[in-house]
Design goal:
Blueprint: H1 13-30, H2 44-47, H3 52-69, E1 88-91, H4 92-109, H5 111-117, E2 129-132, H6 138-154
Helix pairs in contact: 1-3, 4-5
Length: 159
Amino acid sequence: MRLWTLHPKYLDPRGLVALWREALLAQAVLKGQTSGYKHHPQLIRFRNTSSPTESIASYLQEVFDESCRRGYCFDESKIASTGNAVAMTVTRGQLDYEVAHLKKKLQTRAPSWLVRIQTIKRPISHPLFRIVPGPVEEWEVNSYNFIYRNYSAANRLPG
C-alpha cells in the first residue's frame, strides 16, 4: 500500500489508478470493513487524526478530482463523507523521499512520464498535507520493515 504525500498530478496513469484502489482499501480498513492491513504503517498518519475516515475520504476526493482532470473519472460514490478533515503535517524529507521513489518506479514502468516530472525542483504535496522541515517520516521506515518482514515470512522455503 502506498498513499502518496505527493500531489496525484505527478503519478503516471497506472500509478494514479493504483493510488485510487489502494486509498479505497485504506478507507475500508479505517472504517473497520476489512480484516487485513489493519496495522499497515501507511495508515498511521490517518489514524492519528481526529477523524481518520474523513481524512482518507478527503484524500480520495483529490485523487478523484485528478482523474477527472485527466478525462477518466473514477466512481465518486465510493468515497465516504469528507466532512471536516484537518490538514496533516508531513516532513519535507518524506516528500523528497517519495519523489525519488516515484522516479525510480517510473524508470521501468513509464519512462516517458519520468521525462515529464524529471525537472521538478520543488514538488507540491497532496492538498491534505502541510509540509514542515524534517527527515523521512518514521512510519515510512516502518513501512519498509513491515513489507520486508511480511514478504520474507510469506516466501520462506520449507525447512
